[in-house]
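Can you please make up a protein's amino acid sequence together with its fold in token form to help me picture the idea?
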Amino acid sequence: QRQFVESGGGLVQPGGSLRLSCAASGFTLDYYAIAWFRQAPGKEREGVSCISRSGGSTNYADSVKGRFTISKDNAKNTVYLQMNSLKPEDTAVYYCARKLGCDSSSVPLGSWGQGTQVTVSS
């Protein structure tokens, strides 16, 4: 069964940092692009960042550019999202998903995991 387990969320003050992890099982990262999404209360799920199959290409939503960094460790079959300079508007449940590519026309595959809650508040 192909699935992700997201972890690393928590409560952090504005300006703080967190590193989210997305551990994949049932498949290897080499076959897919992996994207992070987030959903804030009352809002639609939105794409945050994506890393290509090779890891050589990444993209970011304008709202997180310069603050978030996506990376992956194929040996651990895990994708990370380093989040710095966090803002209250980053508060959301964060999910990861596999895609065929990082282009906007490529839709997430499979079902969503439980996600990990990130709360940025003083």
About this structure: The beta strands are 3-7, 10-12, 18-25, 33-39, 46-51, 58-60, 68-73, 78-83, 92-99, 116-120. The first strand starts at residue 3 and ends at 7.
